[in-house]
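Troubleshooting: if your tokenizer reports a length mismatch, compare your output against this known-good record of 744 residues.
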Amino acid sequence: MMVKHILVTAFLMHFAFCVSAQQVKDFNLRFSERGEDSWSSMPLGNGEISSQVWTDKEGKLQFYLGTTDSRDGMDNLIKVGKLTIQFEPNIIVNGKNYAEELLLNDGVFRIKNSLADIQFRVDANSPEIVVSGSSAVPVKIKVTNNIWRTETRDWNKDEYVTEYGDNEMPFKPFMEADDALKSSGGGIIWFHRNKNEVFWNELMKANGLLNEGIANPLKNRTSGALVKGTGLQALNDTVLYTAKPQKNFIIKTTVLVQQTDTRQGYIDALQNLAAKSDKTTATAALAAHKKWWSGFWNRSYVYFNTADKKLNDTLFLLNRGYVLQRYVNAVGGRGNLPIKFNGSTLVLDTYNEAIGRVSGKSADARLWGGAFWWQNTRLMYYPMLASGDFDQIQPFIDFYLNLLPVAKKMTKKFHKNDGARFLETTHFWGAWRGGDIGWDRTNLQPGISTNPYIKDLVITGLEMSNYLLDYYRYTGDEKMLREKTIPFIKEVLLFYDQHYHRDASGKLLITPAQSLETYINAVNPTPDIAGLIVVTASVMELTKDEDALALCAKLQKELPAIPTAVKDGKKVILPVQSYKNKINVEYPELYPVFPFRIYGPGKKGTEVAINTFKEKQRAYSGWQQTAIQAAMLGLTDSAAKIMKINGLAYDKRFRFPGFWGPNYDYTPDQCHAGNYMNTIQSMLMQAENNDVYLVPAWPVEWNVKFKLHVPGNKQVEGEWKNGKMVSVKKYPESNDTNIIIGFR
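Known-good structure output:
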């Protein structure tokens, strides 16, 4: 990969960063050379639609298109497509003083030289990708649709790697072909339409849900786009061209994912959508786009440096990582489905180089497939509370709230009790992955997973309950609390109440169980006990719902204590009361710190958690939450050490230096990214109701300016400089937040 020039770029950016007030534009990515292939691309997006754009050595402008919900008949998250734009004469190659820049502050990718000024954006307010520009000389333009799904075919054997654990399917996994055609409006159209229902039928059969009245969300799901532009006409089904040279141009690609009864119904919907977007002028659309991005960056910020130049070079890269990941969240965080932990919408092809076990594949392929893992998905959403990105949180919340009816149905049918058990791994309509439920269900108990890593893992609903309560604390959304959050939590608590027995002393006996994916065949996992302690207490504080209050009071009386022991003369938290097997490398003993915050600044017994953390050397990267837990315990040296390791762990093979991995999952690793952001925020600020602790685990020599959100729909803005808090501002003016400096 051609990335040697990025170091020079970073130095120049760093110089600007040091001598002026920090702002988003200091982290813009600038390059003086064209790229090579897709690994040279820059990501852009509006939350639902994304694109990765690059220039190649021949001076062609190329870009992938993706969405959060472009799902094929196997429920893989596939690309919508790929387009190429060529100019004749070649103004990109022939022009002098070439430069390309990702303008983070504007959400725009700009190419500029002596002949051309081209701007590329995924519009923040409409479902379209816009390429606009001007040329010093008249140019002919050619737009080519590069379809790689040209025929319906069975998967190759090595493609099973993209759907780990699903290599014993009772049918041949498949990829269907795309369609392409001229549009009646002078553009070209292409789309991928799901026709084959064998995956759905076999999966729901394995799940025991085939005849349970659950609608097939993959059936006739169609993902495609329409391309048209100034002076462009269709040469054939895949090529647009200009018959007459021109100096100014606008090329629009309208993207749509929709279930329609007929193929023509989708085409009509796509054409109508494109026509609707044309009613807004180009100037007004661009202004509205930039306004959205300006508002986004003004919600919150974190900028840090130090007087130590050698250290500041590192801090610049760490700060850049935070800014770039917040940008990536915005690129794929306002969609119809949550952010995919294993690459978001930004997975790239591996034609020239491998990513982990994936090589020689199109940008449709990714390790771990299209399903959602709770333990991974949640991690991108914790830092969005402090950053104030509540619009990006909504798809995550809606996803799990919408799964409630299916979860209740499965709980009643397979566990024979009321309430709702939420799965660790799930397709977006609520069913187990085939590889986890097991395709061959002969002589197996219906609805029970065969995967020992997650078979008895039930923490999903409980942790989501706690997250919903935190969301309420930050937003103050009383209506949602009353109508959605409390009803959701009641069903989760009801599962624990009815599904598990009591021991001889009347205490809840959580077994068969497991403590995350690590301690299996277990009794009383620490995460579940900690979650029940916190959630029941919060519900009793926040609601007057009599049924909820009664259920919480009952569970509180029956809850066992968090398992502990004395080691080397010090009390420590155990991961579980007892277990038979250990098969992974997680640290459930620290769940009372994060995510459940029983221990932390200002809280009793925190020394026990500190003893626990210090007990052994721990893993850092990927979905490991070690750094967050160190920060929440005020362990500044540990938190800073791990933060620096994780913040420099971006994949140097890519031109965009905000693609993390490969770790446990896939590049760009969104679990790792979410944890990294959360670590920085937790080092800088920790909030619990009306108490806000500033710099509880922040190195004294690091200067920092910040604005972050706190509970109560409030914000805190401050500056730490030369070892002192030199300013603190609270918004709004009525903000009664209690500010505490340091970890106490």
